[in-house]
Every structure is written in structure tokens, then in C-alpha cells.
Fold each of these.
Amino acid sequence: MKIFDVPGSKLVEDEPDSTTFDYVLKNNPSFVANTAKHYLVLQEIGNDVPKYLARGKAGFHEMLTDFVTGKGTFEKSDWAWDELFAFVKAAQTPVRNPLVTTFFSMAAVRHGDYVAKVRLAPTTENTARVIHRELDLRERPDVFYPTLVDELQASAFDFDLQIQLCTDLKAMPVDDTTVEWPEKLSPFVTVARIHIPFQDISGIESLEKTDALAFNIWRVTEEHRPLGEIMQTRRIYSASAKIRRTLNHQPQTEPASADEVVPHSMAKGA
């Protein structure tokens, strides 16, 4: 999610004067790694999951062993048990229509004087409005874009932007991103309503403009600084965006306003 006209210096090192503010959220409340060391090895294993599973039970057992031990590179005291449980939980997360999906920051951020996690939750009305209640990823190469085209041509949708404040650093740790913070200790509180108007996003102009965007968890003000080791590793977003934009011959700069992103042909009403 990209917010425009936000004053204040941003924490993206080469774009401090940017007036945009980004949230990068995922459909899972926790992350699958707690350190950069774990993440590098587990990402490699995750990419090779089809190769492991192609060898049946023996391959599955080897995958679990490699995952926990980091292919033999982790000390026994540092074996990735927490990461394994988080990975299994994430793998069981059902794929749903994005307009009825809840999205999470997974890791902690500053919230002024507090430490918090961020959530974007669909309103109950969204469920009643959607056309595609079930998605089949095997149906076609791209499932989400055609789904959003259909949905947004028919209805407007709303999400609640919510904040969960940290009230207990032991039960709600900052660096252990595999831990889902218990809502019984601190429930999510709605701080804003995000309205997505019905619109036509099917045109090539829409695809080109949105494809040229870059989102970065560090494109925020100091009051919303990302926290923890995993969030530090995600500074790589800047380099990744530069490479992608260079290969695609796209501008390296942030848009100054929403008008630069949303083609006039998209708007159908509020």
C-alpha cells in the first residue's frame, strides 16, 4: 500500500525526500525466519521444495532435515525448530481472494513512542460483495489479476488499517518474527479505513503504471521505523527495485501523486 503526500524525511537511504509512505504486508501474521543467516538457507531450501517432494517420502525427510539443520551449517543450539513450525503454518494458509484476505506486517515497527505490528483487515461487507469466493491457482498462470479486474468492475471494497501495540516483550518479541503476538494481550485497534472504489484496471496503461511502482518497508518516517534483524535485511528492496526498473526501462523515481499512478480511464466512481 502506497500513501501519498506524507511529510517528513523517509528512511530509504537514497530517497529521503520522498513524499510517499509504503506498507508491505503479507497474508500471514508471522515470518518464517528470525535471522538473516537462517533466512538465506531456508530461502534456498524453499526454492527447492518441488525437487525434494519429487523423491517422495525420502525427499520429504531430507527436506525437513536440511531445513532444521541449515543443510548442516547450523549449530545444534541454533537449529531452526521455530522456523520449521512457522513454515508449516504458513504453508497451510489458504489462498483466498485478496479482497477477503487479511494482510500483516509480520514483523514489528515503531508506532510513535510504541512498538507495534500492522494489519489490514477486510470489512465484513467485502465477503458479501465478492464474486470469486474460491480461487484455484491451477486454473491459469495468473489468478489474482483477473480476479481483481472482475471484482473492482462490480463493487467497491473497504479494509480496516489496524495497529497491535506491544505490551509484553517476552510474549510479544521484536526479533523473533516466527511468533504471532497474542491478541488476548493486545487486540488490534482500527486507526483508519481504506476505501478501494470500483474501477476498471483491465487496460494496458494500468498494468504499465502499477508495474513501474516499487514498494519498500523503509519508505517510512522515523516514527514508523521497521524493527529487528529481519527488517534490516529487507533494505535489499531498494537494490532489487533499481535492478528491476533498469531491466524494464522504467523510471527510478517515486510518483509525486496518485494521479501519476491511476490512469484517468480507470476511474468509474467512488
Amino acid sequence: MAKEIQVTREGLEKLRKELEELKGPERLRIADTIREAKAHGDLKENAAYHEAKLNQTRLESRIAELEKAVQLAHIVERPDVTSGVAGMGSKVELLDEEFDDQFVVTIVGSFEADAGKMLISISSPLGEALLGRSVGDLVDVVAPQGNNRYKILGVQ
């Protein structure tokens, strides 16, 4: 049996929108590019055609991945914000004790993670360390870049 994929309600909606975009307009765009490249003749030495076919393969792979993710998606509701306990969907304000730096992360499912947007996967070292923790807790995170210690300043 396939393992379910934990996502927030918002995350599932994003996956569905991306899937719709890829199956509709993006598929049509790539098909047009392939048709145009074929019109240039000899396919053996047609770099534009080979690039378009490669893009088509990547697109179909991503579509298959998204379809599987949507099929296996299990929506995890945000915890009660009054509980003050970090869980899936929580925004957690942290203090990096070493650098005296404050920042906020949102705990999300793996498919939603985007470190640049501070969307931290529940399966990442930081995400795992934060789950079930409360304001005031000190959290030690063992990560590939080294060990870090954070203090939880807030949970929403």
C-alpha cells in the first residue's frame, strides 16, 4: 500500500492548481513547440526538436508525480492555535541563540516545502524538532550544516 502524503489544505490546492496548469496550457505549449520544431525538417540533427521532446518527458514526469501526490494526499488540519503547540500548518517564531537572530517558519508537508519562503517540511531536521513543541522550549537541531539551538518565541 502506498504511503499517504501529508499536506495542508492550502498545499493540496496548490498541487491541484499546478497539475491543472501543466495538463492544460503547458502541455499545449510544448506540443506547439514540438510541431514547430518538426517543421524544420531532419529530426536527427534538430536540436530544437530534441529539446522540446526532453521538456515533454519532464512535463509528463511531473504530471505523474503530482497526480500521485494528489491521490495519496492526506490533509492535516492546523492544530488549535490557542494550544500553543507547533504542528503541521503552524507558524513558529524562533530565536537562533548563536546568532541572536529571529525568524518565522511555517511547518508544511514535504511537497509544500520551500526553504526560500520559510516553508519547512515536517520531515526536515528543523520541522521534526519543532513538532509538538511549545513557546519557551529550547530545540536542538542536528542538520547536515551542523548543530543549531533555537528558542521558540511564538506559535500561531
